[in-house]
Write a structure and sequence with these properties.
This protein has 25 helices and 6 strands. It is mainly α. Helix 5 (about 120-135) packs across helix 7, helix 8 (about 175-195) runs parallel beside helix 11 (about 225-245) and helix 11 (about 225-245) crosses helix 21.
């Protein structure tokens, strides 16, 4: 277990940063951005050498950590001690901190005990990590599931480091959990920038911690919280850059923005208003300064993303290619209006069916008021819009109470008198980001996931304004949201603490199939049969959204797994690990007696009940 190396590096970098910036929170953000950047560099460099494996990775982190330790030792006398004296805090401030710590503790336990089992993780998040570890490189490979290739990869880079340094035993859920912890730190810092006192900063972090979608995301291997962390760090450094321009802050802005882009594609849309705000602030001071800032930011973004851009361009002809249309087919006012209504509605789901039906009817009538169709196919993946209802699923859970609070805060912030220009500019940027998202990004019920960074970004405003108007009584708001968050902490649909599906009762291998229970027995039976044959070269003949990762878990280490019979745009790619000749092929949904792969024939050796999985053996082995 060498996971302590990146942790130690982050710790000592935070100490180094304390020499140059006041406060441990900003020092931590700077250290996190540096660590994220170096993690990317290590991954890309080792991948070029096909050495993305334990010993080179350990050596790289050992070298970096050793360097950080030596630097800290040499300048130890000039590093100030962080001033954190909780004993001087008021009772309400201690309670707010208690709320945050409790949520962090419960979600950490869930992340550790619960198996990763989101749909996207089973199809491509964790599957691509398994391929990278097998191939010792992040180079592209033939696959039936193209999202394993073109999707932004940073969160999976971090998971790969965890799995390699941790010997495959560390839960990949902790990438999201640590991103949540970092996001709460960044949210409190932005509240400070907006004028909040200590209570307001703690309230901002507590409100962010209580987000239902955030709680569910923090114990999963989705990538939205990781993207949120980099985006919120970007906004913090950006506001600092507006307040006091420096080249170091521009580099921090560029690196955090580059990491956000490398983690999630929709970040390209959300950052635009904040970038405009920053460049406008630079222009007011100096035209040359704004050009310098823009050049530095672009250089950092391109440097971090160049590897993935290059692989996408070589394989698909575009740095940002996807196999589905993620943007709206039209960008007119009616499309904007209907998508605003739909994206707002999925956040307002309640436990009451009649209330959800009323919201749906209200949104339909509001769309018709502007002559629009709530089911406009030009801007949606679904043909029938509906309010999904109360959900404990990390793909669909809304943030009802937060939405109501944010509407109230949006009105109240115009009566806020301290630092009002910055607060209003900030609120307008968040609102504009949401409108741009609705204008550009095609609607789907799972868009509620993509709203997570916007909700976290609004929490600093909520903490600042609530503290201003309610003073000591603001603790009541936090208590309400903390109590309301309880069900999402313990009744997570994929990681419940109670009931027959409890993470304490069900073994981790069985938890993988919570979203696709009908696959559990066929996969287990097929894996058992393949193991009995002694085959160590398994081919996969799958669909474009098939569950691949459980095969890696069930077949165990030492088995080479590759996609065969690929007919999509990745079919011309080479296997990074060298030529591949399968002795067994796992096929999904087929049952023909014989299939041909390359120059070899494979005969049907068996099918699971219902025909979900078919096993083919090489003809000479039958």
């Amino acid at each position: 277990m060498f996971l302590f190396l990146p942790v130690l590096f982050l710790f000592f970098c935070t100490l180094v940063a304390l020499r140059y910036v006041p406060g441990w929170r900003e020092s931590f953000l700077i250290a996190a951005v540096l660590a994220g950047t170096l993690l990317t560099a290590i991954t890309e460099i080792l991948s070029l050498m096909k050495s993305f494996s334990f010993y080179p990775l350990m050596a790289a982190w050992l070298f970096l950590t050793g360097g950080a330790v030596c630097f800290v030792w040499n300048v130890r006398r000039s590093i100030p001690r962080p001033q954190i004296n909780v004993g001087d805090w008021s009772l309400s401030e201690k309670i707010l901190l208690g709320f945050i710590v409790f949520i962090g503790f419960i979600t950490a336990i869930t992340a550790y005990v619960g198996a990763p089992n989101t749909w996207d993780s089973m199809t491509y998040h964790l599957s691509r990590v398994a391929h990278w570890i097998q191939d010792k490189t992040v180079s592209f490979y033939p696959t039936h599931i193209l999202r394993q290739l073109y999707s932004s990869p940073w969160a999976e880079y971090a998971v790969a480091h965890l799995r390699i340094l941790g010997g495959g035993q560390t839960s990949p859920n902790f990438v999201q959990w640590t991103s949540m912890a970092g996001s709460l730190v960044a949210a409190s810092l932005i509240a400070q920038q907006l004028g909040a006192g200590r209570r307001g900063q703690l309230l901002a972090a507590a409100l962010a911690a209580c987000l239902p979608m955030g709680i569910l995301q923090s114990v999963s291997t989705q990538t939205d919280y990781a993207a949120s962390f980099w985006l919120i760090g970007f906004v913090y450094f950006l506001i600092e850059g507006i307040r006091k321009f420096s080249l170091v802050r521009c580099i921090a802005i560029g690196l955090s923005l580059g990491l956000a882009f490398l983690t999630k594609g929709y970040e390209y849309v959300l950052v635009l208003p904040f970038l405009a705000w920053f460049l406008t602030g630079c222009l007011k001071q100096s035209f040359s300064r704004s050009l310098t800032a823009l050049a530095l930011v672009m250089l950092c973004v391109l440097g971090l993303n160049m590897g993935q851009y290059w692989r996408n361009a070589r394989a698909f002809g575009s740095p940002q290619w996807t196999d589905v249309s993620l943007t709206n087919a039209s960008f007119g006012p009616r499309v904007l209006w209907v998508n605003v209504l739909r994206n707002a509605a999925i956040q307002l789901a309640t436990p009451f069916e009649d209330a959800d039906e009323s919201i749906q009817q209200g949104m339909t009538r509001a769309a018709q008021w502007l002559g629009a169709d709530i089911n406009d196919p030009r801007a949606s993946f679904t043909s029938n819009f509906s309010v999904p209802g109360l959900s404990f699923d990390e793909d669909y859970a809304g943030n009802f109470l937060h939405s109501i609070l944010f509407i109230i805060i949006f009105v109240a912030c115009w009566f806020y008198r301290e630092n009002k220009n910055r607060v209003r500019s900030y609120v307008l940027c968040v609102l504009t980001s949401f409108l741009l998202f609705c204008l550009i990004v095609r609607f789907s019920p799972w868009n509620v996931r993509f709203h997570l960074p916007l909700y976290i970004l609004f929490c600093p405003v909520a903490g600042t304004v609530t503290e201003y108007f309610l003073k000591q009584k603001s603790i009541a708001v936090a208590a309400l949201f903390f109590l309301a968050a309880g069900p999402w902490m313990f009744l997570d649909h994929e990681h419940p603490w109670f009931g027959h599906r409890s993470i304490w009762r069900v073994p981790q291998p069985a938890q993988y199939f919570y979203k696709h229970a009908d696959l559990a027995l066929p996969y287990a039976q097929s894996a058992g049969y393949i193991k009995s044959t002694g085959c160590r070269r398994v081919g996969l003949l799958l669909g474009a959204d098939s569950w691949e990762y459980p095969w890696w878990v069930l077949l165990g280490p030492g088995v080479r797994i590759e996609h065969v019979g690929v007919k999509n745009r990745s079919m011309g790619l080479r296997y990074p690990a060298g030529d591949f000749d399968a002795c067994v092929i796992i096929a999904e949904g087929t049952g023909v007696p014989v299939i041909m792969e390359g120059s070899s024939l494979y005969g049907l050796a068996g099918r699971t009940p219902g025909g979900l999985v078919s096993i083919y053996k090489k003809m000479e082995s039958i």
